[in-house]
Structure formats: structure tokens, C-alpha cells
Amino acid sequence: MHFGADKLPFLGCEVSKDGISPSKEKVEALVNYPQPQDVSALRRFLAMLNFYRRFIPNAAEMQRILYGLVKGKKKRYKTTTDWGEAAVQAFQTCKNSIAQAALLAHLNSDAKLSLVVDASNTGIAGTLQQTYLKNT
């Protein structure tokens, strides 16, 4: 039990009065994750990162190149992954993005809400946004 705590750990996240964010320990594990040498390790990294995708703007686009490296390969595939310059850059971008993950605010029933959707040839997305006024 955590009585009087400012933050509570919950399912790999920290919940506070301001909102929810990835836990510092999980972010640190992803930021320090070594460049995967095989398909299995890359899938493991992508799975851990995907758990926090709601905190990362444009997550699918950042991960697109990395998913190309595992596409069509079996889950337990242990052969080495061919890391081109673009893949190395995408891997670092993903690690940087989780380090700067957004705080998702709790819903304010008095706030104005808007639904934003988008689609392209490579993906679809949608967010429910609320107008945030600092002094309300």
C-alpha cells in the first residue's frame, strides 16, 4: 500500500495527480538496450517499445524501418540482422523518443474534447485530445 504517495507504479507506468507516464526504470532499460544482433532480440526490443507507443508521437513511422528487418521472419529466428545506416538511425530515434515520452493527462470532464484521425498508405491513427488550460 502507498498511502499519501505523489506517484504510484502501475503496470510499468507511473500514475500521478497530473497523469500517467512510463516508469523511469522501464525507460532506462529501453534507452540502454544494446543494438540487437538477431531478429529475436529486435522483436523483443520492438515489443517492449510498443507497450509504450501511446506516449510516443508518430511511433509507427519511427519503427517502420525496424519492422522491415523482422517482416516475414520467424519469431525465434536467430540469424543476424543486417543493420544499414537508416536502421541504426531508426533504432536511436526510437530510444530517444521513449526518453522524451509525453505525460498523458487524466481526462478533465470540463475540458473541450476533440477527436483527431489520420490515415496514409502506410498507417492509420487517431487520438482523443482535450484542451489543457494550466490554471483550470
UniProtKB/TrEMBL annotation:
The name this protein goes by in its record: RNA-directed DNA polymerase
First-tier enzyme category under EC: transferase
Top-level taxonomy: Eukaryota, Metazoa, Ecdysozoa, Arthropoda, Chelicerata
Organism encoding this protein: Araneus ventricosus (Orbweaver spider)
Gene3D superfamilies recorded: 3.30.70.270
GO MF annotations in UniProt: RNA-directed DNA polymerase activity
Stretches assigned to the Reverse transcriptase/retrotransposon-derived protein RNase H-like domain: 83-132
EC number: 2.7.7.49
